[in-house]
Write a structure and sequence with these properties.
Layout (H helix, E strand, L loop, with lengths): L1 H43 L5 H16 L1 H12 L5 H11 L1
Helix pairs in contact: 1-2, 3-4
Length: 95
């Protein structure tokens, strides 16, 4: 009976983890779209050059594409496996 309870708790934790991860990924994608809108407007007003626009879009897209890796780095820091400086360096490399 104890094994069933553990299995149920593990399943619940996996579902919660999956749901939280999906929600956070969706938030990251929404932030990317807002950033893109802002950059599109700036490009249209000639406030940014095409080169600057491309660099900033690529950086914002990279953050979304590397979302899982960035989340894992943050978890490592929360668990005390890496220092805050190591976390910042790893996130900077991923963004």
């Amino acid at each position: 009976m104890n094994n069933r309870r553990t299995c149920f708790l593990d399943s619940t934790a996996v579902i919660f983890y999956f749901y939280t991860s999906l929600r956070e990924k969706q938030e990251a994608e929404e932030a990317f779209l807002k950033e893109k809108e802002k950059l599109d407007k700036a490009l249209g007003m000639d406030v940014l050059s095409q080169e600057e626009y491309d660099e900033r879009i690529a950086s914002a897209r990279k953050r979304v594409d590397n979302f899982e890796a960035i989340r894992k780095v943050r978890q490592q820091a929360e668990m005390g496996l890496i220092t805050a400086q190591e976390m910042e360096a790893k996130i900077k490399a991923l963004s």
